[in-house]
Amino acid sequence: MQTHFTPAQLADPGLRESEKILRKCVHCGFCTATCPTFVLAGDELDSPRGRIYLIKDMLENSRPASELVVRHLDRCLSCLSCMTTCPSGVHYMHLIDHARSYIEATYRRPWPERALRALLAAVLPRPMLFRLALMGAALARPFARLVPGRSATAARLRAMLRLAPASLPGRSALEGARVHPAQGVRRKRVALLAGCAQQVLAPAINEATIRLLTRMGVEVVVASGAGCCGALVHHMGRHEAALSAARANVAAWTREIEGEGLDAIIVNASGCGTTVKDYGFMLRGEPEWAEKAARVAGLARDVSELLAELGYQPAPGARPPPLRVAYHAACSLQHGQKITKEPKALLAAAGFTVLEVPEGHLCCGSAGTYNLLQPEIAGQLRARKLANIASRRPDLIASGNIGCMTQLAGGGLPVVHTVELLDWAAGGPAPADVNHAALASPPPPA
Protein backbone atom coordinates (compact mmCIF):
# COMPACT_ATOMS: atom_id res chain seq x y z
CA MET A 1 0.00 0.00 0.00
CA GLN A 2 1.34 3.43 -0.95
CA THR A 3 1.42 5.95 1.89
CA HIS A 4 1.95 9.71 1.93
CA PHE A 5 2.96 10.63 5.45
CA THR A 6 5.19 13.66 5.90
CA PRO A 7 8.58 13.50 7.69
CA ALA A 8 7.04 15.53 10.50
CA GLN A 9 4.25 12.98 10.92
CA LEU A 10 6.71 10.08 10.90
CA ALA A 11 8.61 11.66 13.78
CA ASP A 12 5.79 10.33 15.96
CA PRO A 13 6.69 6.73 16.98
CA GLY A 14 3.09 5.52 16.85
CA LEU A 15 2.47 6.93 13.39
CA ARG A 16 5.82 5.62 12.19
CA GLU A 17 4.91 2.09 13.27
CA SER A 18 1.44 2.32 11.76
CA GLU A 19 2.90 3.54 8.46
CA LYS A 20 5.14 0.45 8.31
CA ILE A 21 2.11 -1.77 8.89
CA LEU A 22 0.01 0.03 6.26
CA ARG A 23 2.72 -0.37 3.64
CA LYS A 24 2.64 -4.16 4.05
CA CYS A 25 -1.01 -4.43 2.99
CA VAL A 26 -1.37 -5.52 -0.65
CA HIS A 27 -5.19 -5.18 -0.85
CA CYS A 28 -5.55 -8.94 -1.55
CA GLY A 29 -8.75 -9.31 0.48
CA PHE A 30 -7.93 -12.72 1.95
CA CYS A 31 -8.78 -11.22 5.35
CA THR A 32 -12.41 -10.61 4.36
CA ALA A 33 -13.18 -14.33 4.22
CA THR A 34 -12.31 -14.86 7.88
CA CYS A 35 -13.48 -11.56 9.40
CA PRO A 36 -16.58 -12.21 11.55
CA THR A 37 -18.18 -8.81 10.94
CA PHE A 38 -17.69 -9.02 7.17
CA VAL A 39 -19.05 -12.59 7.16
CA LEU A 40 -22.17 -11.32 8.94
CA ALA A 41 -22.73 -8.01 7.16
CA GLY A 42 -20.85 -8.24 3.86
CA ASP A 43 -19.84 -4.57 4.22
CA GLU A 44 -16.32 -3.79 3.01
CA LEU A 45 -15.92 -1.15 5.72
CA ASP A 46 -16.60 -3.86 8.29
CA SER A 47 -13.66 -5.90 7.00
CA PRO A 48 -9.97 -5.53 7.92
CA ARG A 49 -9.16 -4.22 4.44
CA GLY A 50 -11.90 -1.60 4.67
CA ARG A 51 -10.86 -0.57 8.15
CA ILE A 52 -7.24 -0.27 7.00
CA TYR A 53 -8.35 2.21 4.32
CA LEU A 54 -10.28 4.22 6.91
CA ILE A 55 -7.31 4.27 9.28
CA LYS A 56 -4.89 5.24 6.52
CA ASP A 57 -7.06 8.14 5.38
CA MET A 58 -7.58 9.37 8.94
CA LEU A 59 -3.93 9.19 9.98
CA GLU A 60 -2.43 10.50 6.73
CA ASN A 61 -4.63 13.59 6.79
CA SER A 62 -4.22 14.12 10.55
CA ARG A 63 -7.95 14.62 10.78
CA PRO A 64 -10.05 13.91 13.87
CA ALA A 65 -11.90 10.61 13.78
CA SER A 66 -15.31 10.88 12.17
CA GLU A 67 -18.50 9.14 13.24
CA LEU A 68 -18.17 6.82 10.22
CA VAL A 69 -14.65 5.79 11.14
CA VAL A 70 -15.54 5.28 14.79
CA ARG A 71 -18.61 3.20 13.94
CA HIS A 72 -16.72 0.74 11.74
CA LEU A 73 -13.61 0.52 13.93
CA ASP A 74 -15.78 0.00 17.01
CA ARG A 75 -17.32 -3.00 15.26
CA CYS A 76 -13.91 -4.68 15.00
CA LEU A 77 -13.64 -7.50 17.54
CA SER A 78 -9.82 -7.52 17.59
CA CYS A 79 -10.18 -11.27 17.08
CA LEU A 80 -7.05 -11.17 14.86
CA SER A 81 -8.36 -13.85 12.52
CA CYS A 82 -7.20 -11.55 9.72
CA MET A 83 -3.62 -11.86 10.96
CA THR A 84 -3.80 -15.64 10.67
CA THR A 85 -5.13 -15.32 7.13
CA CYS A 86 -2.95 -12.47 5.88
CA PRO A 87 -0.18 -13.67 3.50
CA SER A 88 1.72 -10.36 3.79
CA GLY A 89 2.28 -10.24 7.55
CA VAL A 90 0.18 -7.14 8.22
CA HIS A 91 0.26 -6.63 12.01
CA TYR A 92 -3.35 -5.53 12.24
CA MET A 93 -3.37 -5.76 16.06
CA HIS A 94 -0.86 -2.93 16.49
CA LEU A 95 -2.60 -0.87 13.80
CA ILE A 96 -6.10 -1.11 15.28
CA ASP A 97 -4.75 -0.46 18.79
CA HIS A 98 -3.07 2.73 17.57
CA ALA A 99 -6.21 3.79 15.71
CA ARG A 100 -8.33 3.31 18.83
CA SER A 101 -5.93 5.42 20.85
CA TYR A 102 -6.16 8.10 18.14
CA ILE A 103 -9.96 7.94 18.26
CA GLU A 104 -9.91 8.35 22.04
CA ALA A 105 -7.80 11.51 21.62
CA THR A 106 -9.71 13.11 18.74
CA TYR A 107 -13.36 12.02 18.92
CA ARG A 108 -15.99 13.02 21.46
CA ARG A 109 -18.54 10.27 21.90
CA PRO A 110 -22.14 10.94 23.01
CA TRP A 111 -22.25 11.38 26.77
CA PRO A 112 -24.13 8.12 27.57
CA GLU A 113 -21.45 6.17 25.72
CA ARG A 114 -18.64 8.11 27.43
CA ALA A 115 -20.19 7.37 30.80
CA LEU A 116 -20.62 3.66 30.07
CA ARG A 117 -17.08 3.25 28.75
CA ALA A 118 -15.67 5.13 31.74
CA LEU A 119 -17.66 2.88 34.08
CA LEU A 120 -16.39 -0.30 32.40
CA ALA A 121 -12.80 0.97 32.43
CA ALA A 122 -13.05 1.77 36.14
CA VAL A 123 -14.87 -1.37 37.32
CA LEU A 124 -13.72 -4.36 35.24
CA PRO A 125 -9.99 -4.21 36.08
CA ARG A 126 -10.65 -3.94 39.83
CA PRO A 127 -11.91 -7.19 41.40
CA MET A 128 -13.48 -5.58 44.47
CA LEU A 129 -15.44 -3.03 42.44
CA PHE A 130 -16.35 -5.65 39.87
CA ARG A 131 -17.71 -7.96 42.55
CA LEU A 132 -19.86 -5.17 44.00
CA ALA A 133 -21.11 -4.23 40.54
CA LEU A 134 -22.07 -7.83 39.78
CA MET A 135 -23.91 -8.15 43.07
CA GLY A 136 -26.00 -5.13 42.11
CA ALA A 137 -26.49 -6.43 38.57
CA ALA A 138 -27.68 -9.79 39.89
CA LEU A 139 -30.52 -8.04 41.72
CA ALA A 140 -31.49 -6.12 38.59
CA ARG A 141 -30.98 -9.04 36.18
CA PRO A 142 -34.62 -10.29 36.22
CA PHE A 143 -35.71 -6.86 34.99
CA ALA A 144 -33.34 -6.67 31.98
CA ARG A 145 -36.22 -6.91 29.49
CA LEU A 146 -37.94 -3.99 31.16
CA VAL A 147 -35.15 -1.53 30.27
CA PRO A 148 -37.03 0.81 27.89
CA GLY A 149 -35.96 2.19 24.55
CA ARG A 150 -34.30 1.07 21.33
CA SER A 151 -31.20 3.24 21.67
CA ALA A 152 -27.67 1.83 21.71
CA THR A 153 -27.41 2.72 25.40
CA ALA A 154 -30.58 0.79 26.29
CA ALA A 155 -29.36 -2.23 24.32
CA ARG A 156 -26.03 -2.11 26.11
CA LEU A 157 -27.66 -1.90 29.53
CA ARG A 158 -29.84 -4.92 28.70
CA ALA A 159 -26.74 -6.82 27.54
CA MET A 160 -24.87 -6.00 30.74
CA LEU A 161 -27.72 -7.31 32.86
CA ARG A 162 -28.15 -10.47 30.75
CA LEU A 163 -24.46 -11.30 31.01
CA ALA A 164 -24.31 -10.76 34.76
CA PRO A 165 -24.38 -14.12 36.57
CA ALA A 166 -27.43 -14.84 38.72
CA SER A 167 -25.09 -15.65 41.61
CA LEU A 168 -21.38 -15.27 42.28
CA PRO A 169 -19.00 -17.93 43.56
CA GLY A 170 -17.41 -17.20 46.92
CA ARG A 171 -13.95 -15.72 47.14
CA SER A 172 -11.21 -18.28 46.75
CA ALA A 173 -9.15 -19.30 49.75
CA LEU A 174 -6.14 -19.04 47.43
CA GLU A 175 -6.82 -15.43 46.45
CA GLY A 176 -4.09 -12.89 47.09
CA ALA A 177 -0.33 -12.58 46.73
CA ARG A 178 1.54 -15.62 48.04
CA VAL A 179 3.84 -18.50 47.13
CA HIS A 180 2.33 -21.94 46.49
CA PRO A 181 5.14 -24.49 47.05
CA ALA A 182 5.78 -27.31 44.61
CA GLN A 183 4.97 -30.85 45.71
CA GLY A 184 8.05 -33.03 45.75
CA VAL A 185 11.15 -31.93 43.88
CA ARG A 186 10.77 -28.45 42.44
CA ARG A 187 11.03 -28.52 38.65
CA LYS A 188 10.21 -24.90 37.91
CA ARG A 189 9.27 -21.61 39.56
CA VAL A 190 6.62 -19.54 37.79
CA ALA A 191 4.49 -16.46 38.38
CA LEU A 192 0.76 -16.74 37.78
CA LEU A 193 -1.26 -13.76 36.59
CA ALA A 194 -4.28 -13.93 38.88
CA GLY A 195 -6.25 -11.61 36.61
CA CYS A 196 -9.10 -9.28 37.45
CA ALA A 197 -12.54 -10.26 36.14
CA GLN A 198 -11.68 -13.96 36.06
CA GLN A 199 -10.94 -14.29 39.76
CA VAL A 200 -14.39 -12.84 40.49
CA LEU A 201 -16.38 -14.77 37.87
CA ALA A 202 -14.57 -18.12 38.08
CA PRO A 203 -12.01 -18.42 40.91
CA ALA A 204 -11.97 -22.19 40.30
CA ILE A 205 -9.77 -21.59 37.23
CA ASN A 206 -6.87 -20.23 39.27
CA GLU A 207 -7.43 -22.90 41.91
CA ALA A 208 -7.23 -25.67 39.30
CA THR A 209 -4.13 -24.09 37.76
CA ILE A 210 -2.34 -23.88 41.09
CA ARG A 211 -3.32 -27.43 42.12
CA LEU A 212 -2.24 -28.90 38.81
CA LEU A 213 1.08 -27.06 38.56
CA THR A 214 2.15 -27.61 42.16
CA ARG A 215 1.25 -31.31 41.80
CA MET A 216 3.62 -31.41 38.81
CA GLY A 217 6.50 -29.94 40.81
CA VAL A 218 6.04 -26.27 39.91
CA GLU A 219 6.27 -23.53 42.52
CA VAL A 220 3.60 -20.94 41.74
CA VAL A 221 4.01 -17.31 42.80
CA VAL A 222 1.20 -14.79 42.76
CA ALA A 223 3.34 -11.67 42.91
CA SER A 224 2.48 -8.70 45.09
CA GLY A 225 1.63 -5.68 42.96
CA ALA A 226 0.58 -7.61 39.86
CA GLY A 227 -2.98 -6.97 38.71
CA CYS A 228 -5.01 -6.41 35.55
CA CYS A 229 -2.97 -6.97 32.39
CA GLY A 230 -4.37 -3.82 30.78
CA ALA A 231 -6.09 -5.52 27.83
CA LEU A 232 -9.61 -4.31 28.63
CA VAL A 233 -8.70 -0.62 28.66
CA HIS A 234 -6.15 -1.02 25.86
CA HIS A 235 -8.82 -2.22 23.43
CA MET A 236 -11.01 0.71 24.45
CA GLY A 237 -8.30 3.12 23.29
CA ARG A 238 -7.21 4.09 26.80
CA HIS A 239 -3.54 3.80 26.01
CA GLU A 240 -2.09 5.42 29.14
CA ALA A 241 -4.24 3.32 31.47
CA ALA A 242 -3.07 0.19 29.66
CA LEU A 243 0.58 1.23 29.93
CA SER A 244 0.14 1.94 33.64
CA ALA A 245 -1.19 -1.60 34.18
CA ALA A 246 1.66 -3.03 32.11
CA ARG A 247 4.29 -1.14 34.13
CA ALA A 248 2.81 -2.37 37.43
CA ASN A 249 2.97 -5.98 36.28
CA VAL A 250 6.44 -5.63 34.81
CA ALA A 251 7.65 -4.14 38.11
CA ALA A 252 6.05 -6.91 40.18
CA TRP A 253 7.44 -9.72 38.04
CA THR A 254 10.86 -8.10 37.70
CA ARG A 255 11.18 -8.19 41.49
CA GLU A 256 10.57 -11.94 41.35
CA ILE A 257 12.94 -12.43 38.40
CA GLU A 258 15.71 -10.55 40.17
CA GLY A 259 14.90 -12.25 43.49
CA GLU A 260 14.45 -16.02 43.48
CA GLY A 261 14.02 -16.08 39.70
CA LEU A 262 11.22 -17.16 37.36
CA ASP A 263 11.19 -19.80 34.66
CA ALA A 264 7.95 -18.49 33.18
CA ILE A 265 5.00 -16.16 33.70
CA ILE A 266 1.83 -18.21 33.34
CA VAL A 267 -1.45 -16.79 32.08
CA ASN A 268 -4.66 -18.85 32.01
CA ALA A 269 -6.85 -16.24 30.30
CA SER A 270 -5.71 -16.10 26.71
CA GLY A 271 -6.89 -12.53 26.13
CA CYS A 272 -4.56 -11.44 28.92
CA GLY A 273 -1.78 -13.67 27.60
CA THR A 274 -1.83 -12.00 24.20
CA THR A 275 -1.40 -8.61 25.86
CA VAL A 276 1.35 -9.68 28.29
CA LYS A 277 3.29 -11.19 25.39
CA ASP A 278 3.06 -7.75 23.74
CA TYR A 279 4.46 -5.77 26.70
CA GLY A 280 7.82 -5.43 24.96
CA PHE A 281 6.16 -3.61 22.09
CA MET A 282 3.84 -1.56 24.28
CA LEU A 283 6.69 -0.19 26.42
CA ARG A 284 9.34 -0.09 23.68
CA GLY A 285 9.68 3.71 23.81
CA GLU A 286 10.30 3.98 27.55
CA PRO A 287 13.99 3.55 28.43
CA GLU A 288 13.24 2.69 32.06
CA TRP A 289 10.83 -0.09 31.10
CA ALA A 290 11.66 -1.34 27.61
CA GLU A 291 14.23 -4.00 28.53
CA LYS A 292 12.29 -5.24 31.55
CA ALA A 293 9.06 -5.41 29.55
CA ALA A 294 10.75 -7.36 26.76
CA ARG A 295 12.09 -9.83 29.32
CA VAL A 296 8.64 -10.28 30.87
CA ALA A 297 7.04 -10.74 27.44
CA GLY A 298 9.64 -13.38 26.61
CA LEU A 299 8.77 -15.33 29.76
CA ALA A 300 4.99 -15.20 29.24
CA ARG A 301 3.34 -18.55 28.50
CA ASP A 302 -0.21 -19.77 28.23
CA VAL A 303 -0.83 -22.47 30.81
CA SER A 304 -1.29 -25.04 28.03
CA GLU A 305 2.22 -24.30 26.73
CA LEU A 306 3.79 -25.05 30.11
CA LEU A 307 1.73 -28.20 30.67
CA ALA A 308 2.77 -29.53 27.27
CA GLU A 309 6.40 -28.72 28.06
CA LEU A 310 6.17 -30.53 31.40
CA GLY A 311 4.72 -33.64 29.75
CA TYR A 312 1.28 -33.57 31.36
CA GLN A 313 -0.31 -36.96 32.01
CA PRO A 314 -3.53 -37.88 33.84
CA ALA A 315 -3.26 -39.61 37.20
CA PRO A 316 -3.67 -43.41 37.14
CA GLY A 317 -7.16 -44.29 38.34
CA ALA A 318 -8.33 -40.67 38.30
CA ARG A 319 -9.64 -40.55 34.76
CA PRO A 320 -13.08 -38.90 34.42
CA PRO A 321 -15.84 -40.38 32.24
CA PRO A 322 -15.03 -40.49 28.50
CA LEU A 323 -16.76 -37.23 27.73
CA ARG A 324 -17.16 -35.59 24.33
CA VAL A 325 -15.58 -32.15 24.66
CA ALA A 326 -16.18 -29.40 22.09
CA TYR A 327 -12.98 -27.38 22.20
CA HIS A 328 -13.69 -23.71 21.56
CA ALA A 329 -10.45 -22.09 20.41
CA ALA A 330 -10.41 -18.56 21.82
CA CYS A 331 -9.36 -16.05 19.17
CA SER A 332 -6.68 -14.59 21.42
CA LEU A 333 -5.15 -18.06 21.74
CA GLN A 334 -5.37 -19.34 18.16
CA HIS A 335 -4.89 -16.04 16.32
CA GLY A 336 -3.19 -13.81 18.89
CA GLN A 337 -0.72 -16.36 20.29
CA LYS A 338 -0.79 -18.97 17.49
CA ILE A 339 -1.45 -21.74 20.01
CA THR A 340 -3.66 -24.34 18.34
CA LYS A 341 -2.39 -27.85 19.04
CA GLU A 342 -1.45 -27.92 22.72
CA PRO A 343 -4.90 -27.57 24.37
CA LYS A 344 -6.46 -30.25 22.16
CA ALA A 345 -3.51 -32.61 22.62
CA LEU A 346 -3.66 -32.16 26.40
CA LEU A 347 -7.41 -32.86 26.52
CA ALA A 348 -6.93 -35.97 24.40
CA ALA A 349 -4.11 -37.14 26.68
CA ALA A 350 -6.47 -36.68 29.64
CA GLY A 351 -8.89 -39.17 28.06
CA PHE A 352 -11.49 -36.84 26.57
CA THR A 353 -12.85 -37.12 23.03
CA VAL A 354 -11.97 -33.75 21.53
CA LEU A 355 -14.40 -32.44 18.92
CA GLU A 356 -13.44 -29.86 16.31
CA VAL A 357 -16.05 -27.10 16.05
CA PRO A 358 -17.13 -26.01 12.54
CA GLU A 359 -16.07 -22.44 11.72
CA GLY A 360 -13.69 -22.64 14.65
CA HIS A 361 -11.75 -19.65 13.34
CA LEU A 362 -14.72 -17.31 13.86
CA CYS A 363 -15.12 -15.34 17.08
CA CYS A 364 -17.87 -16.15 19.60
CA GLY A 365 -18.57 -12.44 20.08
CA SER A 366 -17.06 -11.95 23.53
CA ALA A 367 -13.89 -9.98 22.70
CA GLY A 368 -13.31 -8.22 26.02
CA THR A 369 -16.02 -5.59 26.38
CA TYR A 370 -17.37 -6.13 22.85
CA ASN A 371 -20.42 -8.13 23.95
CA LEU A 372 -21.34 -5.20 26.19
CA LEU A 373 -20.67 -2.41 23.68
CA GLN A 374 -21.82 -4.18 20.50
CA PRO A 375 -24.52 -6.54 21.82
CA GLU A 376 -26.36 -7.07 18.53
CA ILE A 377 -23.34 -8.32 16.57
CA ALA A 378 -22.07 -10.23 19.61
CA GLY A 379 -25.43 -11.95 19.94
CA GLN A 380 -25.39 -13.04 16.30
CA LEU A 381 -21.89 -14.47 16.66
CA ARG A 382 -22.84 -16.25 19.90
CA ALA A 383 -25.86 -17.90 18.27
CA ARG A 384 -23.76 -18.98 15.29
CA LYS A 385 -21.03 -20.39 17.53
CA LEU A 386 -23.47 -22.31 19.76
CA ALA A 387 -25.20 -23.78 16.69
CA ASN A 388 -21.87 -24.97 15.33
CA ILE A 389 -20.97 -26.47 18.70
CA ALA A 390 -24.35 -28.20 19.04
CA SER A 391 -23.88 -29.82 15.62
CA ARG A 392 -21.10 -31.96 17.11
CA ARG A 393 -23.34 -33.20 19.97
CA PRO A 394 -20.81 -32.65 22.77
CA ASP A 395 -21.23 -33.23 26.48
CA LEU A 396 -19.57 -29.94 27.38
CA ILE A 397 -17.52 -27.04 26.04
CA ALA A 398 -13.91 -26.31 26.98
CA SER A 399 -12.13 -23.03 26.39
CA GLY A 400 -9.02 -21.24 27.59
CA ASN A 401 -10.48 -17.76 28.04
CA ILE A 402 -12.91 -16.48 30.65
CA GLY A 403 -14.53 -14.03 28.21
CA CYS A 404 -15.49 -16.84 25.85
CA MET A 405 -16.75 -18.93 28.76
CA THR A 406 -19.02 -16.10 29.92
CA GLN A 407 -20.28 -15.49 26.39
CA LEU A 408 -21.14 -19.15 25.73
CA ALA A 409 -22.68 -19.85 29.14
CA GLY A 410 -26.40 -20.48 29.26
CA GLY A 411 -26.47 -22.20 25.88
CA GLY A 412 -27.52 -25.57 27.28
CA LEU A 413 -24.06 -27.07 27.85
CA PRO A 414 -21.56 -26.76 30.70
CA VAL A 415 -18.69 -24.43 29.80
CA VAL A 416 -15.44 -25.04 31.65
CA HIS A 417 -11.84 -23.97 31.39
CA THR A 418 -9.46 -26.44 29.76
CA VAL A 419 -7.25 -26.45 32.85
CA GLU A 420 -10.20 -27.50 35.05
CA LEU A 421 -10.66 -30.64 32.97
CA LEU A 422 -6.93 -31.38 33.00
CA ASP A 423 -6.81 -30.94 36.78
CA TRP A 424 -9.82 -33.26 37.16
CA ALA A 425 -8.09 -35.95 35.11
CA ALA A 426 -4.95 -35.53 37.21
CA GLY A 427 -6.70 -36.12 40.54
CA GLY A 428 -8.42 -32.80 41.21
CA PRO A 429 -12.13 -32.26 41.79
CA ALA A 430 -14.69 -32.35 38.99
CA PRO A 431 -15.59 -28.89 37.66
CA ALA A 432 -18.67 -27.58 39.43
CA ASP A 433 -20.55 -26.99 36.18
CA VAL A 434 -20.27 -30.58 34.99
CA ASN A 435 -23.54 -32.40 35.63
CA HIS A 436 -22.63 -36.04 36.27
CA ALA A 437 -26.20 -37.27 35.96
CA ALA A 438 -26.62 -35.71 32.53
CA LEU A 439 -23.31 -37.20 31.40
CA ALA A 440 -23.90 -40.73 32.64
CA SER A 441 -25.46 -42.01 29.42
CA PRO A 442 -23.26 -43.52 26.70
CA PRO A 443 -21.89 -41.05 24.17
CA PRO A 444 -23.82 -40.72 20.88
CA PRO A 445 -22.32 -42.11 17.69
CA ALA A 446 -19.80 -39.84 15.96
Task: Throw out a few tags for this protein.
446 residues, alpha/beta, Fumarate Reductase Iron-sulfur Protein, Chain B, domain 2, Rossmann fold, 4 domains, five-stranded mixed β-sheet, four-stranded parallel β-sheet, 8% strand, globular
User: C-alpha Rg, in Å?
Assistant: 22 Å
Could you report the average pLDDT, rounded to the nearest whole number?
A: 92
What oligomeric state do these chains adopt? single chain
Structural class: alpha/beta
Unreliable residue runs: 440-446
The name of the CATH architecture of the largest domain is 3-Layer(aba) Sandwich
Taken as a percent bin, the fraction of beta residues is: 5-15%
Number of helices: 24
Main-sheet strand order equals 1-3-2-4-5
CATH topology term of the largest domain: Rossmann fold
Shape: globular
Account of the protein in words:
The protein is an alpha/beta fold and about 450 residues long. The chain folds into four domains: about 5-105, Alpha-helical ferredoxin (Fumarate Reductase Iron-sulfur Protein, Chain B, domain 2, Orthogonal Bundle), CATH 1.10.1060.10; about 110-165, no CATH class; about 180-310, Rossmann fold (3-Layer(aba) Sandwich); about 315-425, Rossmann fold (3-Layer(aba) Sandwich), CATH 3.40.50.1860. It is about 50% helix and about 10% strand. It has 24 helices and nine strands. The chain has helices at about 5-10, 15-25, 35-40, 50-60, 65-75, 80-85, 90-105, 110-125, 125-140, 150-165, 195-200, 205-215, 230-235, 240-260, 270-275, 280, 290-300, 305-310, 330-335, 340-350, 370-375, 375-390, 400-410, 420-425; strands at about 180, 190, 220, 265, 300, 325-330, 355, 395-400, 415. Strands 1-3-2-4-5 form a five-stranded mixed sheet. Helix 2 (about 15-25) crosses helix 7, helix 4 (about 50-60) packs across helix 7 and helix 12 (about 205-215) packs across helix 24. It is globular and about 65 Å long.
